[in-house]
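Problem: given the chain below (184 residues), write out its structure.
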Amino acid sequence: MTQPEPERAAAVVLPHRYAMMPVGEMRPHPSNPNRGDVDAIAESIEGIGFYGVVVVHESTGHILIGEHRWTAAQTVGLGEVPAIVVDCDDDTARAIMVGDNEYAKLARWDVERLVAVLEQQRASPLGLAATGFGEARFAELVAQLHPAPPDQFPGYDDDLPTQHRCPRCGYEWSGSARPGQGAA
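Solution.
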């Protein structure tokens, strides 16, 4: 007998408020396992300004999202930052902190779109400086989209032995007839 699927809880918006908060009124969550590149974030803040928010747990003042952004803001001398202060229990706060980091890592680039956006940004007065991408990384992405052909292609002749022949079109080949299956 199969178990019935548990009912999904209705989605809710957690109680929260938006505020400009002094950096001294928030602090890192003691269990945050994520490590970020504060120097790169500080460089971005200096290049284009602070954007986004830091998400803070109301009852503890612990930073749930944006700890490295908060640290970088202090590094460049900002005294306050925009925050979303969330009113939730400790278990939910911990889930927010870990989940936000993990969901960000699950993302992947659409390389074609990324190169197009970076080409536009590269041509702008700001350039790539505040994007986290340097010229070397940009070149790698372009090469990924347009790989250089090999210096020399191996030569083949028409007299290669074949193991299979398509009964419909007559095409001949060697190797497995279908991926994962042996020769027929």
